[in-house]
Design a protein that fits this description.
Length: 439
């Protein structure tokens, strides 16, 4: 890795997390306290009054409208006695039939999670995860109560914020589907235990639980209580994990297991979810790389297996650019919408716009090309070394095609003349590492 590889883009990604401890294995030693259900990351705008001379007049009502989180909406609906009617229209049977039909191909990399979500009336995460539990024989093996399982999955799905353009239950369902595809890969499937599969699916389904739709730097600079609670380190990931543990306990899904096993499960789910912190990617990647260089990964070893599952979940989490263009493009639009929304809030409240969040200077194509070059390609390159299968080749194939497509969009935009942002051109030269910049 040359100094040149430390691109402007990477610097942007890291700019706000420099003070953060870089220990991959960092985790609270304070046991496994959960976060109270309903302790959603509500962002209190009053804090901007206290330490800033800029007068922001925004009523509590407006604040709620601005960042009205899933939980708030549902509880207020509940208290006002409004229930969301169960849609029982004549088309439901037909949709159910089509959704069931889709589940027969749940291991297919082209699986269209957006269509599946529409066919299940917004219940993709519950339907898909329940199906996978069944498919992997987990219900039988762990003697799970299917009512408790369904209730647990409904709570998980509800604790995602449906108003987030990207970090919502559909993303969680997509990651869970990808994880399932990786679990089926020959190297993994022959060595994984039912326990490993159970943890992988739960971690995938819960890995972004109660995501507020803003990133860690935002929580830090607004003095959000979660940033304080987790000492500015893997703030969101810690919150997702603790929220997942809270729901596991509340559901009683594993109440019939020994306390020791439940604690082991909670801590191992934490290891998986914490691995999805993108700011720690280099640490995980270099560990992965040195294992592959030494050829010393032994999947009979539980620690090695769990390391591979961490890598698999990381891949599943950022696999959007490895899907077909039709799916990949939709994800790109959604994630950019969420970034730009954060940028809009930061502008409005004079918080300083976070990297990649400024709709005036960034474009979807630039963001995607940077993301692919510096995060997705290195990760999936190593993954293909580990698991050199047709799926890995398919994913790398889509990745290459999608990148070419975004470059086409980029050329079109810069070719159109007039309104080319200078930052855009600067970035364009930054994110093309294959150009002979060493000479
Ligand atoms: Zn995610």
């Amino acid at each position: 890795a040359s100094a040149l590889q430390i691109s402007r883009w990477e610097k942007k990604m890291k700019k706000n997390s420099q003070d953060v401890t870089r220990d991959v294995r960092v985790r609270s030693r304070a046991g496994f306290e959960t976060e109270r259900r309903g302790s959603h990351p509500y962002i209190d705008f009053r804090i901007f009054h206290s330490n800033s001379e800029i007068e922001v007049s925004v009523s509590a009502r407006n604040v709620r409208r601005l960042l009205s989180f899933q939980r708030y909406l549902r509880s207020s609906r509940f208290f006002r006695g409004i229930t969301v009617p169960n849609s029982s229209n004549i088309l439901d049977d037909d949709y159910n039939g089509q959704a069931k039909c889709m589940l027969e191909k749940v291991g297919n990399w082209n699986f269209d999670i957006f269509l599946f979500d529409r066919l299940t009336n917004g219940n993709s995460l519950v339907s898909l995860t329940f199906h996978l539990f069944n498919l992997h024989g987990l219900i039988e093996h762990f003697q799970l109560d299917t009512m408790k399982l369904r209730r647990f999955l409904v709570m998980v799905q509800e604790d995602y914020h449906s108003q987030n353009p990207y970090h919502n239950a559909v993303h969680a369902a997509d990651v869970t589907q990808a994880m399932h595809c990786y679990l089926k890969e020959p190297k993994l499937s022959k060595s994984l235990t039912p326990w490993d599969v159970l943890l992988s699916l739960i971690a995938a389904a819960t890995h972004d639980l109660d995501h507020p739709g803003v990133n860690q730097p935002f929580l830090i600079k607004t003095n959000h209580y979660l940033a304080t609670l987790y000492k500015n380190t893997s703030v969101l990931e810690n919150h997702h994990w603790r929220s997942a543990v809270g729901l596991l306990r509340e559901s009683g899904l594993f109440a019939h297991m020994s306390l020791e096993n439940r604690q082991l499960m909670e801590s191992q789910i934490g290891d998986l979810i914490l691995a999805t912190d993108i700011s720690q990617q280099n640490e995980y990647l270099s560990m992965f790389r040195s294992h592959l260089d030494r050829g010393d990964l032994c999947l009979e070893n539980a620690n090695h297996r769990h390391f591979i599952l961490q890598m698999a979940l990381k891949c599943a989490d950022i696999c959007n650019p490895c899907r077909t263009w039709e799916l990949s493009k939709q994800w790109s639009e959604k994630v950019t919408e969420e970034f730009f929304h954060q940028g809009d809030i930061e502008k409005k409240y004079h918080l300083g716009v976070s990297p990649l969040c400024d709709r005036q200077t960034e474009t979807i194509a630039n963001i995607q090309i940077g993301f692919m070059t510096y995060l997705v390609e290195p990760l999936f390159g190593e993954w293909a070394r580990f698991s050199n299968t047709r799926l890995s080749q398919t994913m790398l194939g889509h990745l290459g095609l999608n990148k070419a497509s975004w470059k086409g969009v980029q050329r079109e935009q810069s070719g159109s003349g007039d309104d080319v942002d200078p930052a855009f051109e600067e970035m364009d030269s930054d994110i093309l590492p294959q150009e002979p910049r060493l000479s």
